[in-house]
Amino acid sequence: MKFLYLILFMTLYFGCSKTSDENSNEEKDSEKVIVNDPHSYANPEESKIIHLDWDATVSFDEKVISAVATLTLENSDNAAFLFLDTKELSIEKITLDDGEEETHYEIGERDPFLGKSLKVEIKPETKKVVITYSTSPEAEALQWLTPAQTADKEHPFLFTQSQAILARSWVPIQDSPGIRFTYNAKVKVPDELMALMSAENPIEKSTEGVYSFQMKQAIPAYLLALAVGDLEFQELGPRTGVYAEPSVVSKAAYEFAELEAMVAAAEELYGPYQWEQYDLIVLPPSFPFGGMENPRLTFATPTILAGDRSLTSLVAHELAHSWSGNLVTNATWNDFWLNEGFTVYFENRIMEKLYGRDYSEMLTSLAAQDLQEEIESMTSEGMAADTKLKLALNGRNPDDGMTSIAYDKGYLFLRSLEEEVGREKFDSFLKEYFTKNAFKVMTTEEFVNELKVNLYEKNGLVINQDNIDKWIYSEGLPENAPKPISDKFDIVDTQWTHYGEGIGFEQLDTEGWSSHEWLHFVRGTPEDLDMEQMKKMDQTFGLTNSGNSEVLTEWLVQSIKHQYEPAYSRLEDFLINTGRRKFLMPLYKELIKTEEGMQMARSIYGKARPNYHFVSTYSLDPLLENK
Ligand code: BES
Ligand code: ZN
To answer: What is the pLDDT of residues 390-418, one digit of tens each?
Structure first.
């Protein structure tokens, strides 16, 4: 334990040398940045991974990946040890370079979040560490699905989710966002399945089930990804395409038809797309997130296949991460807002460019509402400290930082800067920021310095440090926070006013509403609607049968609130067949507010839990397990 603390609190120094611009402002940037990643055992100042060769066999029968990971190192002159992160891995042997002889290693004590350190004895001249190991069937990053849990019900499926610190449960690695490496992989899967990674990917199945991958750009471990299943590829454009199970692929291709245009819009905003190809994979419904920005291959939930392209802002979000996050990476999970806040800002700019300001203002208004609610609930639950942009997640699960603070407060902060200095200056600042810091790490403090020098001073403006500090280091929202205004939502609100004045649901003017307007409308359902009124609302607008997962979730929340029982079987069905945490949380949270609801929630959870990913059960267990 002592050892663990030693490592935890050891300050890690690693180089973050910047482009050697002539600009004198750059001098400061080229100093070494001190980064202490509290969520990794890695010792990059002594020995750092720069490349991974991964040779793996995937066994669905055993729910195990057996692999050899060959790590190429960059060592300091007196390097004696390489520290890696692991979680529930069985290490069989470790050798160095081309030698046969095993090297000495030690496995540290288990921390519930961090797993165990793996301390490998090396020499300063050691180039490669070769680790033969296998994963545990309970590996937290891996979800093994039976055929019944897939769309086509014929073949099993496997996918990984490495962010934030789960990569270590399938590869022994330096699992810290500040440590980047390239990788090559060879993966053997059952003959009838295809394997894909966050790398250059096949577009057809191989006959023997062996696939080779190459990722030439250096990435941090949280972007390592693998998916194995009965998959097909459909091209969408010269550098875009989509993978999905055979029965899903054409629906997906329809939904994402604008992908190529999105990439072009993103490039126009903030510079070239640096990863060559951009594909999506639609996963089975148990995927716990909406999307995950694995480089070259975004992982996506099937719940965005609404049939009308109305939920594609999620794709814009994951695409935007190809700049914010994947190019310029948060140094630690305490700086998570740098990944997500920038991405939400960028996402909204893409949506505005493609569909206009009216459209993007609906999205930002919805987000601002969510944020307001979340700040209130976090504050009332004693979590107010987590409403600061700069987080303090040391000793905690970094997943705790995945709240709308990083996303939407982060977004509003950047929007406030845009509004202060004007869009033109802000855009050229951002473009330069992404270019200059590409493939590097960023701390919150360094970002503030960037702002000061390259946004304010460069434009002859003076930074208001107090204001910046308030956004970053204070709880809640500053008073001067931007307030997105959607005229379209004002019109939606008017319909509720009409309803209040006695006009029936059929007479309300809902003609041509987008799913965002529907979402806002359903959110506005008056608390005092009685059963008859709920029924009428449902019959008129077909809400219980909505094919739009966002609208449906909101309607189901209202149904629970109003104890509208006709929606309960759809609710149960949805909870059993969807694993996306964003939908599960509000539904279960609403259910458990009453005694009967709690019983119902527990009974549904009993049936649904085997379908959920670790990430979702981690959040739900505390709410629902009998204590
Ligand atoms: N990178 C995140 C997902 C994530 C964050 C996974 C932290 C694990 C830890 C991804 O880009 C994301 O933000 N997904 C959102 C969708 C988005 C439109 C807000 C999601 O899954 O809901
Ligand atoms: Zn994101």
So the answer is: 999 999 999 999 999 999 999 999 999 99
What count of other Cβ atoms lies within 10 Å of the Cβ of residue 413?
A: 24
pLDDT in the model for residue 7: 43
Q: Which letter, b or e, does each residue of 292-324 get, where b requires 16 or more Cβ atoms within 10 Å of its Cβ? A: bbbbbbbbbbbbbbbeeebbbbbbbbbbbbbbb
Q: 293: Cβ below 6 Å to ligand 1?
A: yes
Is the CB of 177 within 6 Å of ligand 1? no
Residue nearest to atom 22 of ligand 1 (CA): 290
Enumerate the H helices of 21-91 as residue ranges. 26-29
Nearest-angstrom CA–CA distance, 414 and 168: 33
Ligand 1 pocket check for 520: Cβ under 6 Å: no
Q: How far is it, in rounded angstroms, from Cα 257 to Cα 22?
A: 43
The residues pairing with 281 across neighbouring beta strands, listed in sequence order, are 243, 299
Tens digit of each residue's pLDDT (9 = 90 or more) over 441-462: 999 999 999 999 999 999 999 9
pLDDT in tens, 208-234: 999 999 999 999 999 999 999 999 999
Q: How many helices (H) and strands (E) does the chain have?
A: 20, 22
Single out the catalytic residue among 105, 243, 270, 407. Answer: 407
For tokens 């019944």, name the residue: 148
Check: CB of residue 263 under 8 Å from CB of residue 318: no
Instruction: List pLDDT tens digits, range 460-513.
Output: 999 999 999 999 999 999 999 999 999 999 999 999 999 999 999 999 999 999
H, E, C per residue of 188-214: ECCCCCEEEECCCCCCCCCCCCEEEEE
| Catalytic status, residue 318 | yes
State the closest ligand 1 atom to the C-alpha of 314, by its place in the atom list counted from 1: 18
- Ion ligand 2 — residues with CB < 5 Å: 340, 343
pTM: predicted TM-score of the whole model, two decimal places: 0.94
| pLDDT in the model for residue 625 | 82
Q: Could you tell me if the CB of 582 is within 6 A of ligand 1?
A: yes
CA distance 108 to 119: 8
Place of tokens 């496995």: 107
- Ligand lying closest to the C-alpha of residue 342: 2
The pLDDT of residue 336: 98
Ligand 1: residue of 161, 175, 286, 289 to mutate (most ligand atoms within 8 A of CB) is 289
What distances in angstroms separate CA 310 from CA 209, 255, 351, 461, 474, one per listed residue? 36, 8, 11, 40, 35
CA of 226 to the centre of ligand 2 (A): 18
313 CA → ligand 2 middle, Å: 11
Nearest residue to 166 (alpha-carbon basis) of 21, 51, 333: 333
Res 626: pLDDT: 57
- How much is the pLDDT for 31? 38
Catalytic site residue from 318, 446, 517, 550: 318
CA of 348 to the centre of ligand 2 (A): 12
% of the chain residues with pLDDT over 70: 94
CB of 103 closer than 6 A to ligand 1? no
CB of 159 within 6 A of ligand 1: the answer is no
Rounded distance between C-alpha atoms, residue 334 and residue 137, angstroms: 30
Kindly state the tokens that stand for 424: 């033109």
**Residues with pLDDT less than 50, the chain:** 1-34, 627
